[in-house]
Design brief:
- The complex is a heterodimer of chains A (509) and B (284).
- In chain A, the strands form five sheets. In chain A, strands 1, 8, 9, 10, 11, 12, 13, 14, 15, 16, 17 and 18 form a twelve-stranded mixed β-sheet that branches.
- Chain A is of the alpha+beta class and 509 residues long.
- In chain A, helix 9 runs antiparallel to helix 11, helix 10 runs antiparallel to helix 12 and helix 15 packs antiparallel against helix 16.
- The mean pLDDT of chain A is 88.
- Chain A has 16 helices and 22 strands.
- Chain B is mainly α and 284 residues long.
- Helix content of chain B is 73%, strand content 0%.
- Chain B contains eleven helices and no strands.
- The radius of gyration of chain B is 23 Å and the shape is elongated.
- Classes of the chains: A alpha+beta (509), B mainly alpha (284).
């Protein structure tokens, strides 16, 4: 008995000593660093900007690299590593004047040779970049002096500036490229942060770069990207204070009520650049009939689906997101009208036992929920729908590339240039197999036409064709919710590129 | 030790066991009844969406267990979910038993080579974790209820094979079997008259345990989206959907969770108690 008592007193003493030290430790940490914890849904497959088309990669490397030009908060393209640029009258020669005094994280200076080496790398066959085609129009790259770059094109190519502003336009140091450096695991750029540590499927820690070319930026000392796949866990993290910023979670109406009442959380709502669609395979003889697609469009209550499945948003009537300058409103063309949908289905010659397969990407809960709503709406119009859940890689290979589906549900991400979204439509190259010569020609010409005023009428034609002919049922653009702890300000997520910008983020006490 | 005098006298192992057995049987009976009479008991169509009545709390708006994110009646979905659970349980246990019988008898009665080959196969099947094997089979054959049942039937067969083989080996040398053989009774008759009746008890016990295990696996596969396809009702699928709303509507996860737990517990209890009754040696 005596022995036990002694042990207990030792234990108690130890606990007291530890608890006395805890506040000290916490204080030391608070003084040390300005740091934020960010919740990220998926792990990047690589950090090499030229070897993937995965969004998580570009979201992450936005902090490590810069591009020649970049989109500002309104989506206009503004100078970054290039201070200015001009385009020749025949639209074939693009001259960029580069910023002086910029340094890479390894200490080497940035100049035109780095840009040339980078563009050569992304165009090289052995790099096998999925974005090579965006740089194919470049015929030759010349560098008259250290801070001038001239791109000579084989034909006019309007989307070039947007490609240079996208994540895959990240500029790498030429010395490291020549060395064959593995950019996939160790990024070396000119960006506001450097990588400290990458624990796969767990977290990425980024540290402030002291040489960043924008005066006084970044404001944070450290950013930790915590990889948390489960949405409800992300939200719990925010509520418990382990997470400071949540940008990829769309709360339900009930959760919004809780969050709005929470005085320590800031909620910012904006429209994304996504277009949510119910895609139809036009290669199917029933779907090929325009009346069938019109019936589907009339059958769907867009606003309700957006509210319930996608956390709210605004409907669209054609293949462009609400905030894009090329957007045209066609939402009144095929309004929600279940009766008309049923009449249209009746007028078609569809056998009683014909069942249409709706393939849903099972790892995206919002699409699965939307799919179940579409199913019920389409069945009310008289179509028989069978849901088939497929995993993401099967969806990509079987549905998106293989065209093995009748209906599917997906969101098309935003692109800086309209050609990024529309390229290929009207031809058999897209997964909806919608053939329309008029649209295809307008889109093809638009790619080669420079200047917004010149391109607008072409894309108007294409978007009108798509609105009337319905290769997909266009549902709408959803809201993005950025949830932050009250102490954190200045976080920005690029509307079109979906990338995270921590440069202006700061933490106040 | 813990029970004081009077209670200890009244505390009767056999009686307690019977109470447990009967409550388990009653629960299973209820489940079977609700599965058979689902359209009669369920107040709503399990897939019908009431978009104005989303996230109703239990009891609100006449929904006994509330409604889910698309306004579907949770109570009706639980009832219809028992159909898929029991269907998977029966088919899987049946298929596994049949497969086990065939391979077990072949291994027990066949020559050395047949036996080694069959046992090597079943042992390698046993070496895999069940859920991993189920995932593999379903990925190969595609998602859906039929695939899940087939996959589970194959996966659970090795245990039956082992039981049947062991029994066959032991029974072969019993006096009455040898006598039957000497008299020229055809093998199939020996199997049906002597082997099967002798093994039945053990097979039924193992069947009950397999039944429970397959319900768990079906729920897990549906939870992962590989089993029953939405919008059809399955307890696992309900749990999967509920996960997203755990903060605001925890009841969505509680009902299917509790039903799965009770079902599995009941079948396991029945299996345990039956095995004690059939095999009295364990009783001491």
């Amino acid at each position: 008995m005596r022995k036990r008592q002694r042990w207990i007193s030792v234990l108690l003493a130890a606990i007291t000593a530890f608890s006395a030290m805890l506040p000290l430790a916490a204080q030391a940490q608070a003084e040390k660093k300005q740091s934020v914890n960010f919740a990220m849904t998926s792990n990047p497959d690589t950090l090499d900007p030229h070897k993937t088309s995965g969004t998580p990669t570009f979201q992450t490397i936005r902090s490590f690299y810069d591009t020649l030009v970049e989109p500002d908060r309104e989506g206009a393209i503004v100078p970054a590593l290039a201070e200015s640029w001009e385009i020749s009258d025949d639209n074939l020669e693009w001259t960029f004047h580069l910023r002086r005094g910029v340094k890479f994280h390894d200490g080497t200076a940035f100049d035109a040779r780095d840009v040339k080496a980078t563009l050569q790398r992304i165009r090289a066959e052995e790099t096998a970049s999925p974005k090579t085609s965006e740089f194919q129009a470049i015929e030759s790259i010349s560098i008259p002096d250290d801070y001038t770059l001239v791109l000579r094109l084989s034909e006019p190519y309007a989307p070039l500036l947007s490609s240079l502003a996208s994540g895959w336009g990240a500029i790498l140091p030429s010395e490291k490229i020549e060395e064959g450096h593995n950019f996939g695991i160790e990024p070396v750029g000119t960006g506001p942060f450097t990588m400290k540590e990458w624990l796969r499927d767990n977290k990425i820690t980024m540290e402030k770069s002291n040489d960043y070319w924008k005066e006084g930026l970044p404001r944070l000392d450290e950013v930790v990207l915590n990889i948390i796949t489960e949405g409800s866990v992300q939200l719990q993290g925010l509520l418990s204070g382990q997470i400071d910023i949540l940008a990829e979670y769309s709360p339900t109406e009930e959760e919004l009520e809780i969050l709005e009442d929470n005085s320590s959380i800031n909620l910012e709502r904006s429209l994304t650049a996504l277009v949510m669609v119910l895609a139809m395979n036009n290669a199917n003889p029933y779907v090929e009939e325009l009346k069938f697609r019109q019936a589907a469009a009339h059958a769907i209550d867009k606003q309700t689906v957006l509210d319930i499945a996608y956390g709210g948003g605004k409907p669209v009537g054609t293949f462009m997101d609400r905030k894009d300058p090329y957007y045209v409103d066609y939402t009144d063309l095929y309004p929600y009208n279940p009766q008309k949908a049923a009449e249209l289905v009746d007028s078609l010659d569809i056998p009683e036992d014909k069942t249409f397969v709706m393939a849903l990407p099972q790892n995206f809960d919002p699409h699965v929920r939307a799919g179940q709503m579409y199913q019920e709406m389409l069945e009310k119009a008289g179509l028989s729908i069978e849901i088939r859940l497929v995993d993401w890689s099967t969806w990509l290979s079987d549905v998106y590339r293989g065209g093995n589906y009748d209906f599917t549900v997906i969101g098309h991400t935003g692109k800086l240039d309209p050609d990024g979204r529309l390229g290929g439509y009207g031809t058999e190259k897209t997964y909806v197999n919608w053939i329309n010569k008029k649209a295809a020609e307008a889109i093809e010409t638009g790619k080669k036409t420079v200047g917004f005023e010149n391109r607008k009428p072409l894309y108007d034609t294409a978007l009108e064709e798509m609105a009337r002919e319905l290769p997909h049922v266009y549902v709408g653009t959803n809201y993005r919710y950025i949830l932050t702890r009250k102490s954190v300000t200045g976080f920005h997520m690029d509307t079109k590129l979906d990338t995270f910008d921590f440069r202006y983020t700061e933490v106040s006490e | 030790m813990l029970f004081s005098g009077k209670f200890a006298l009244k505390f009767n192992v056999k009686r307690t066991r019977n109470i447990i057995l009967y409550s388990a049987l009653i629960f299973i009976g209820l489940l079977v009844f609700s599965a058979l009479a689902a359209p009669l008991i369920a107040p709503c169509d399990p897939t019908e969406q009431h978009l104005q009545d989303r996230f109703m709390k239990p009891g609100e708006g006449g929904y006994l267990m509330g409604t889910d994110d698309l306004g579907r009646d949770v109570f009706s979905r639980i009832i219809y979910g028992s159909r898929s659970a029991l269907l998977v349980g029966f088919t899987t246990a049946g298929a596994a038993m049949l497969l086990g019988l065939i391979t077990g008898l072949a291994a027990g009665l066949g020559n050395r080579w047949v036996e080694s080959a069959l046992m090597l196969f079943t042992d390698s099947l046993l070496a895999f974790p069940t859920i991993l094997l189920a995932l593999t089979v379903v990925t190969f054959m595609g998602y859906g209820l039929v695939q899940v049942m087939l996959a589970l039937g194959i996966i659970f067969s090795p245990v039956f094979t082992r039981i049947v083989r062991a029994e066959t080996m032991a029974l072969q040398y019993e006096g009455y079997v040898e006598a039957a053989k000497v008299l020229g009774t055809p093998t199939y008759k020996i199997i049906t008259k002597h082997f099967l009746p002798n093994m039945m008890g053990k097979l039924i016990v193992q069947g009950a345990i397999t039944f429970a295990a397959s319900i768990v696996i079906e729920s897990s596969l549906s939870y992962l989206g590989l089993g029953i396809q939405p919008p059809n009702a399955s307890w696992g699928l309900m749990l999967k959907d509920a996960r997203n709303f755990i903060l605001t509507s925890p009841y969505l996860a509680i009902y299917p969770g509790v039903v799965i737990a009770l079902t599995v517990l009941s079948f396991n209890l029945i299996g345990d108690i039956l095995s004690e009754k059939i095999n009295p040696r364990i009783e001491d």
